[in-house]
């Protein structure tokens, strides 16, 4: 039911030109690479139908002139109608009270708010200090830390041993 303008490349002899075929889509057929559609127009009182493959290099461009509102997949009944009776109603998206804008998508508004930036100087300074230390100093700090941990473990195990020896066995 849509009205399309099909820009078709026509080759006549050794010349090539674009020809525009404007009409109403009366059918779509097939699937994938073999899909075709048929366009119908009335030219000088004579109905003309032309079938195009969807995936053809002959079609340069397809323009949507207007969207039609129909309740059938195949519009063969248009062949029997003349004049205004053959007109297709235009689909109106977003008109209040008409379809409630089913096909129209709401546009989200973007509000630009000022971004506050906090300046934190301490982590940068600490990072510079850590980077400034030579690798030997860092390794020595790690050795000292592990020695302190080992010493703390020995003291806690000694304290547990003393605590367990202080308790009198209950019999």
Structural write-up:
With 171 residues, the chain is α+β, with helices and mostly antiparallel strands. The protein folds into 2 domains: 3-90, SH3 type barrels (Roll), CATH 2.30.30; 122-162. The chain is elongated, with a radius of gyration of 41 Å. The longest helix has 32 residues, at 135-166. It contains 2 helices and 5 strands; from the N terminus they run βββββαα. The protein has helices spanning 122-132, 135-166; strands at residues 3-12, 15-29, 36-43, 46-53, 59-66.
Features:
SH3 type barrels; 25% helix; 2 domains; 5-stranded antiparallel beta sheet; alpha+beta; 171 residues; 29% strand; 2 helices; single chain
Question: Secondary-structure map with pairings?
Answer:
Elements: E1 3-12, E2 15-29, E3 36-43, E4 46-53, E5 59-66, H1 122-132, H2 135-166
Antiparallel strand pairs: 1-2, 1-5, 2-3, 3-4
